Amino acid sequence: MRVPRRDLPEFCRSGELLALLAVALLVAVIMQLAPAADPRLRVWSLAILFAAWLATLLGVVLCKTRPVLMRLPGAWPWAAAWLLAVLVTMMAAAVVWMLDHALGTGLAARDGGRFVLGSASATALVGAALLRYLWVMGQWRERHDALVRARLDALQARIRPHFLFNSLNTALALVPIDPTAAARTLENLADLFRAALDDSDTGTLGEELDLVDGYLAIEQLRLGERLRIECDWGDLPRGMPLPRLLLQPLVENAIVHGIAARSEGGTLRLRGGRRNGQVEIQVVNPLPETPARIGTGHGLANVRARIGYHFGGHATIDAGVIDARWHLTLRLPDAYPHR
Length: 339
Fold this sequence. Notes:
The chain is α+β, with helices and mostly antiparallel strands. Helices cover 60% and strands 14% of the residues. The chain folds into two domains: 14-143, no CATH class; 175-333, 2-Layer Sandwich (Heat Shock Protein 90). It has helices at 14-32, 41-69, 76-103, 112-174, 179-196, 205-223, 248-259, 298-311; strands spanning 202-204, 227-232, 241-243, 266-275, 278-286, 316-322, 325-333. Strands 2-4-5-7-6 form a five-stranded mixed beta sheet, covered by helices on one side. Helix 4 (112-174) runs antiparallel to helix 5 (179-196).
């Protein structure tokens, strides 16, 4: 059976190094609790110091050799990492034993072979268990990411037809009223179609703002004076990577469920800026005079799910009613905080 390819952990990262250190210290403590172990504090201290030094050494070696190990096929990088850890431990233990006896400090065991083999055996057992744990965690993470990806694709597949259907209806409604405006609308709609049907999941913030502008141009022709727009994107970084169709559903919700539901229309306020290492985008719209029909909330749910997948806990959406207006604020981590 062919073993699936899976990358080794990034041992250069502080999390992996701390995990190696914690496991090494735990093993050293457990070994010192054995009945045959020397209970003196001095021996305990030396054992813990040796374990910490060895774990740090192994972390550095695995970090530097990872690019070379990853050239091996299949699961061989993992086997090679385990074998390398055992060999490094044997050499490190041998050097420590020789220095100890050359200086006559008597810190290590008298039997050099036993000291070296004991250290290597402990590394072999613990290293195999740790690498197996990291392998299983990698499998779980891949499956979890695949599940999240599938759910996001389902959300995306659901919102795209809804968005395109609404835009096409707008263009068709203008044909008998104002053919020239209908032609301009269809041109904007063509750009929206290209963006919505793009296979790539990530674009830029500038492209998303242009998409919003195109959508607003269509709605402006449909609603006329009922739609008033106040837009100030401020110093938003237009080159910042952003999932496609992230902002348009929020603006569409503001118009469809807010302004279009009012007989006199209203003012849509769009603001953007950079604050405290975050990109902040605000959408504000008036609420209808009578309570609107409760929607499915797919637009906002879609955006929440997608920013959670792409940015984790570093992105938030705050939404609520303030002074008879719906205020929505989207905060994303600034990809270029120093520009």
